[in-house]
Amino acid sequence: MPELPEVETVVRDLRASGVVGRVIESVRVYWPAITAPLSPAFFARRVRGRRILEIGRRAKFIVIRLSGGYSLLVHLRMTGQMGLARPPEPRDKHQHLILRLDDGRELRYRDIRKFGCWILTDAPDAITGRLGPEPLAPGFRSGDFIARLSRHRRRLKPLLLDQTFIAGLGNIYADETLWQARLHPLRRSETLSAPEARRLFKAIRATLKRGIRNRGTTLGNAKANFQSLEGRRGANQEQLKVFHRTGQPCPRCNTPIRRLIVAQRSSHVCPRCQRQS
DNA sequence: ATCGCAGCCTGTACGC
DNA sequence: TGCGTACAGGCTGCGA
Description:
- This protein has seven helices and ten strands.
- The protein has helices at 4-16, 40-47, 124-128, 142-151, 156-161, 171-181, 194-213, and strands spanning 24-29, 52-58, 61-66, 71-75, 80-85, 95-101, 106-111, 117-121, 258-262, 265-269.
- The strands form three sheets. A four-stranded antiparallel sheet has the order 1-6-7-5.
- A hairpin with a 4-residue loop joins β3 and β4 (71-75).
- The structure holds a DNA duplex.
């Protein structure tokens, strides 16, 4: 599901597509919860007529900067997808928000489970400021990260998933990161040795970078999972070491991968490489 | 401070 | 084949 590498892939595709610089001529919303707490009508009035100035990413948000001091923060949550279409291509039943652009194209938001949201705001920092550091930004330093690790007394898995601790990891990349670092998801953050903490820092960055290089992870059907702007699958699922590989051999030691539940979500570990003690 | 759980949704994979 | 149920996972808000 969309985590940092998938969102980054979509953002890069959006930039390459030429939608930056276009004016939004009309806005149609087919599922009101997507624009909550704003009503679709209010949302549409505020967005229509503005120009797209810039598209970026912060954590798992797509940040679309508009003229007039407004920004759209788009969160794909579980099944959100961006697509470009040219009318009169019919609307798919899962497309819930459509922006018509002044070059005749339409930017369409598709979301099977409708968990995603489009936040219109004139103060995006009020939302993104609460998030933890960007793991791939130059300012993300191992010293700061290790100090913050020791300030918490939490299990590693939920800590890595906590967007206020570090931005961008989801279930897939958290499991892959912990395998790479040879750390158990139930380990407490304050018990890590300095080498273990450094391993974790490096593994986060390496795992996310590989995900971006492979244009994201697409498990199963791309229509119901991740696809990029042009509907392409990612390739990172072929590189996964533990996620969704229960019973298959660990690439490092051949021990069968095990699945366990941590913080109400599935976790995948090599019981030999990732000892709990 | 940290944890567990319900809720938001729908498609898919399972058992019978 | 069809029906019912569990499950997938990002995030919030609640109570413990």
